Amino acid sequence: MKPNPTNENSLKANLDDESVSQYLQDNPEFFNRKAELLLDLSIPHESGGAISLLERQVAMFRDRNRELQNKINDFIFNAEENDALFEKTRLIILELLKTGSLPKLSDTVEDTLKSEFAAHASRLFFIADKPDDILQNLDIESDSIRTLETTHARDTLGKLFDKKRTFCCELAPEQAKLLFPDTVKEILSAAVIPVHVSESLRESKGINMPILVIGSEKHNHFNSSLDTLFLDFIGEILAVHITRLTI
């Protein structure tokens, strides 16, 4: 129930120094019941012009209490954020594992990750020295499978190509054009997630390394300070599932 402004104003109007003093005299055990209020009270201690040791100690305890409360609030906020991210990740992984083919997996990646991470585009690429041979090696006929040629991808993506873990950053125009050529607006930042498939799959199918990219039209939506733990986990699940779908 929302507080009644009229009642609050009436209560404040009836409170003054005398009424508060009288209440405390009538209720001498008040601060025993509400000891936490003592940390917020400012009670000067007569010591001439200098700050007494007692006042200094109380001020230190008050600052420490405020600092601890801020840490607790941050901890609760981070826990709630991680809980929400875990739930999103769980739902994404379940959707990915339901797919029974690489084309369906690619379609699910583009639809699901984009919505769950408040992004504008999501792509799964298969990188190979000879991209035209990938579909033949995989015995697939589908426009859903996206490929990149190894040398071109390495030259354009630069440091992003050799990352071992998820990396979030702003994209140069040529990188955005390579990864998201069909988006209406330019993708300005992205999370690039390496998918470490097995060596046997690389040798048998000619796939060097798939990468999952999630892009945003905002400059700082994906940035280097983001925690990538859950994205790394999605990449690990994708590696296992891709191997399962191609053997």
How would you describe the overall organization of this protein?
By secondary structure, this protein is an alpha+beta fold. It has helices at residues 5-14, 17-26, 30-33, 53-97, 102-116, 132-138, 150-157, 173-179, 199-205, 229-246, and strands at residues 121-128, 146-149, 167-170, 189-194, 209-216. It has a 5-stranded mixed sheet. Helix 4 (53-97) runs antiparallel to helix 5 (102-116) and helix 4 packs parallel to helix 10. The longest helix has 45 residues, at 53-97. The model has no long low-confidence stretch (mean pLDDT 82).
Short description:
Helix content is 53%, strand content 12%. The protein has helices spanning 5-14, 17-26, 30-33, 53-97, 102-116, 132-138, 150-157, 173-179, 199-205, 229-246; strands spanning 121-128, 146-149, 167-170, 189-194, 209-216. The longest helix is centred in the first third of the chain and has 45 residues, at 53-97.
Number of domains: 2
The average pLDDT score comes to 82
Q: Kindly report how far apart the N and C termini lie.
A: 61 Å
- Please, how many helices? 10
Percentage of β-strand residues: 5-15%
List keywords for this structure.
alpha+beta, 2 domains, 10 helices, Beta-Lactamase, 247 residues, five-stranded mixed beta sheet
Give the arrangement of secondary structure elements.
Blueprint: H1 5-14, H2 17-26, H3 30-33, H4 53-97, H5 102-116, E1 121-128, H6 132-138, E2 146-149, H7 150-157, E3 167-170, H8 173-179, E4 189-194, H9 199-205, E5 209-216, H10 229-246
Parallel strand pairs: 1-2
Antiparallel strand pairs: 1-5, 3-4, 4-5
Helix pairs in contact: 4-5, 4-10
